[in-house]
Each structure stands twice: as C-alpha cells, then as structure tokens.
Amino acid sequence: MHQVKNGDISVEEFTAKTIERIRQLDDSIHAFLHVNSDAIEQAKVIDKKIKSGEKVGDCFGMPISIKDNICIKDTKTTCASKMLQDFVAPYDATVISRLKQQDAIFVGKVNLDEFAMGLTTEFSAYGPTHNPWNVDYVPGGSSGGSAASVSAFECVASLGSDTGGSVRNPASFCGVVGFKPTYGLISRFGLISYANSIEQIGPITRTVKDTAFMLNIVSGHDSNDDTTVDNPQDYLSGIDAGIEGKKIGIIQEMVGDGIDPAVLSATKNAVTKLEGLGATCEDAHLEMVKYSVAAYYTITATEAGSNLARYDNLLYGYDLPVEGYEFNSYISKARTKFGPEVTRRMILGGFVPSAGHAGRYFLKALKVKQKLTREIEHLFKKYDYLIAPTVPILPFKFGEKIDDPIALFLVDINTVTANLTGKPAISVPFELSNGLPIGMQILANSNEDKSVLQAAHALESTVKLPEVPI
Ligand code: GLN
Q1: Which end of the chain is more exposed for a tag (fewer CB within 10 A), N or C?
Q2: R_g of the chain computed on alpha carbons
Q3: Which residues are CB-contacts of 273 (< 8 A; sequence separation ≥ 6)?
Q4: What distance in Å separates the CA atoms of residue 34 and residue 185, rounded to the nearest whole number?
C-alpha cells in the first residue's frame, strides 16, 4: 500500500498483485463469492488521473472487499442465499458511493452466513469461509469473508455488518480489528436488512488507524437513512491521545461461566496492560446480560420475519417456472430456497410477536433491551470504557456447533449488548492461544466512537502478534 502512495508502483500493478493473491489463496480460504473483473479497469482510470495531475481521492489504490449484503450497483448481491442468487443491485449503498468518490477499488464481494444470520459462515449457501490462522477452524461470522480477506492480505480493508456481533466476532477469530459504531453513525441505505433497529455497517481492518480512516469516509448523515446522526468528526486526529487517567469497568457477566481459560487469562493480561497505560480498572456489573441473548434473538427474529417476507420470488428471486402452482403455493414453494438457519429465524419471527404470545416474548424482550440500556448508561456515568473479551471461547472447528443452535446463540453473549443498547464497541486482536487469535472488546457510551478508537489504539500498541501463517 505504501508503495502505491509513494508512487513506486502504479495502482494497476498493485491491484493486479492483489487479484493474483486472491486467486492463489482463495481456493483454501474461500473468502470471496465474487471477484470483481472490473477492478483492473478501475485502477487504470485512477492511474490516468494521477498521470494527468488530477486530484485523487483519499482511498486511491486501496483494494477493499465488501460483504455480500451491501449493494454495489450492477453487481451481484446474494446475501449468500440461493434466494438472491441472480439479484443484481440497481443502486449503490451510501457507503459504496462514499468510497467510490474517494477512488477506492472494490476487489470483490465476500462471504457471510445467509442473510447475516450465524457466526461461523457455515450457513452460507455457497460453502464456508476458512480461518487464515488455521483452515480447519471457522473464521467467525457472519462477516467471516470480510475478516478472512483482511487477515489473509487479500485486501486492505472490508465492510461488514454487525447486528449482534457480526463484525466483531469474525474480527476476533481472524486476528483483525472490527468496529461496530454507535447506532446511526453509518448509513444503512443499501444494506440488505436483517434487524434494522439495531444493526450497523462497520469496518474490518488490520489496524485501529485504518478503521478510523475508513470511518472518516463512510460515516455521517444521509438523507436516505433517517436514523443517521449529523456529528462530523475526524476520527484519525488525536488517535494517539492514550488512556491515562481513564476509568474502565470489566464486565463480570462476560467473564463468568463457560469462558475458556485462555480467554480469561488474556482478559487479565489486557487489564494489566491497560493499567500500565495509566487507566484504572475495576469489576463492573451488567445484570441484564443474562437475558440479553434471549432478548436479542426474540427481537431480531421478529424483524427478520418482517424483512424477509418481501422475498416472494415475484419481485426478487430466482428462476422458478410458475406453471403448476396457484398463487400461494408458488410463493411457498419459492421460499423453500432459504437455508435452515434463515428458515428457523423466520418461523421464530412469526411466533414471538404474534397475538397471544407477544406479551410473553416480544414485549418482554423490548423491556430487557430498555433495562440493559438504562443499566449500561448508569455504568457510563462512572466509567469511560467497559471491557470484556469479544467472544468467550476460542475459534472452533467446522461442524462442532452447527447442529446445536442454542450453543451457537450463546457464543454471542459478549457482543449483543452493544447492539441492543446502540453503543459503540470495537474488537482488537490481543493474544494467540495455540495459534488461534483472541480479541478484546472495548465499549463506550453513544457518540464516544472517537474515544473508543483512542482506547483501542492504546491497547493495540501493547500487542505484537506474529504474521498470519498463510
Ligand atoms: N450471530 C448473530 C445472529 O446470528 C449475529 C449476526 C449478525 O451480527 N449479523 O444473529
């Protein structure tokens, strides 16, 4: 990348090298669903601009991968689902048009669990992505393709989406940085909705500075997404501010039962490092965390049930001849194309908010969300940051949990709080255990995104991991 910035090699040469690396590695990683054959052409246009002395954008020459639930005009956007196998996006997501304005190069669309439901990429209809640290292990998810492509140097940055941890979880498993911003910081226009009341697009990069750089480009108010906030900031300036004098709470409910001993020991080491940087750390309690996973799955299934109702194979869908079906049976037949996890969520999403059950499930889940928010805001009166491991367990092997949905749901215990409460949270690669990465998570109050990046940068400066062995 530096070579491009210094003009030692052209954007075209660098892009060609990147594509070559993808071709070499991706048979074993399978991060990409689609490599963009246009990338070299895009690069040539930028080289021309440079030659003619025209001003180029801040992302010039940066090969970026995009999770395949974010729309790029005239490009296939499948959500890793057979249901959308032929869908070509008719417009750019706001994040994409902002990156295009800055001359970024899109090298391809990357894998995810179908419609972003899952945390291993095993639920992709096009086969799983492998963890670059050890290809026998899952890369996390649902933005597993994003994290693996950054970790394996198949691109310099990626955009994923985080509804309950899908940026932070794979970042943690693949040893890269993943950031879920305050709800409303980044436009969701052009992100195919899973649970829109809590999800955010977020960058996945190799360093915290790169995340701040990406945020400068993609964040900000968008008239196409009324939930966006107008709070322009320069996330790179002052990133070295450090954490001297800051107060940090260690969320006890996220380091308790079921935590892997290696993850617990990494957390203790992180506390020591943070104290070494001049912060004070103490135990903090978020009692509602014990209900957070149940509330999360109740709310997200309800929203997913409604969002995915539009896939009737009339407007969006695949080639299924109508002969032999009457109207309803055609739609029912067409919808059998969804995979098992998405189907499970839609069935749940029909049940929990239905008349007669809403009070017991959906409305109760909303109460948990509200109480958790009150509780965390109370903690932020006392603490600048809260920390916990991003995931309580280490990356695991393919097939280990796929048949046990409840066990899989529970892996989200440390990430869903930031989504349910709308708070910013980042995962920073911290240690390895038997060659597998462990990420530390830092949370702060709403709109303290800049401060979270400063703390993450401080923690990152204490860490030196070996190169990914691929
Ligand atoms: N594992 C969670 C789920 O399946 C999170 C997914 C996400 O953040 N998109 O819903």
Answers
A1: N
A2: 21
A3: 459, 462
A4: 28
> Quick one: pLDDT at residue 1?
61
Residues of the chain with pLDDT > 90, as a percent, come to 94
When pLDDT is averaged across residues 263-278 and rounded to a whole number, the result is: 98
Query: What is the rounded CA–CA span in Å between residue 414 and residue 254?
Result: 6
3-state helix, strand, coil in the chain (%, to 5): 40, 15, 45
- Reported as type and span, the H/E element at residue 42 is helix 39-51
Distance CA 201, CA 227 (A): 13
Instruction: Name the residue of 69, 111, 115, 169 whose CB sits within 8 Å of the most ligand 1 atoms, as the mutation to test its pocket.
Output: 169
Q: How far apart are the CA of 10 and the centre of ligand 1, in A?
A: 39
CB 96 within 8 A of CB 66: yes
In eight-state DSSP terms, residue 311 is -
List residues bridging with 201 in a β-sheet: 161
Q: What is the DSSP string of 161-217?
A: EESSSTTHHHHHHHTSEEEEPPTTSB--TTBPPSSTTT-EEEEEESSHHHHHHHHHH
pLDDT digits (tens, 9 = 90+) for 365-390: 999 999 999 999 999 999 999 999 99
What local confidence, expressed as pLDDT, does residue 182 receive? 98
Which residue, 412, 407, 434, is CA-closest to 134? 434
Q: 386 phi and psi, to 5 degrees?
A: -120, 145
Cis peptide bond upstream of 142, omega within 30: yes
Measuring CA to CA, which residue among 211, 156, 205, 208 is closest to residue 185? 211
Cβ neighbours for 9, distance < 8 A, ≥ 6 positions apart: 3
How many CB atoms lie under 10 A from the CB of residue 453? Answer: 28
307 pLDDT above the threshold of 70? yes
**Catalytic: 142?**
yes
Q: Which residue has the higher pLDDT, 318 or 81?
A: 81
The pairing of beta strand 247-251 with beta strand 200-205: unpaired
Q: Is 166 a catalytic residue?
A: yes
Tokens of 131: 């963890």
Task: Choose between 37 and 296: higher pLDDT.
Answer: 296
CA of 219 to the centre of ligand 1 (A): 22
What pLDDT does 315 receive? 84
* Whole-number Å distance between alpha carbons of 114 and 383: 37
Strands (E), 149-297: 157-162, 177-180, 200-205, 247-251, 280-284
> Does the active-site annotation cover 451?
no
Q: With 70 as the cut, is the pLDDT of residue 136 above it?
A: yes
Nearest atom in ligand 1 to the alpha carbon of residue 163 is: 8
Say if residue 2's pLDDT is above 70. no
Query: Chain-wide mean pLDDT for the chain?
Result: 96
Q: Is 117 in the pocket of ligand 1 (CB under 6 A)?
A: yes
- 150 pLDDT above the threshold of 80: yes
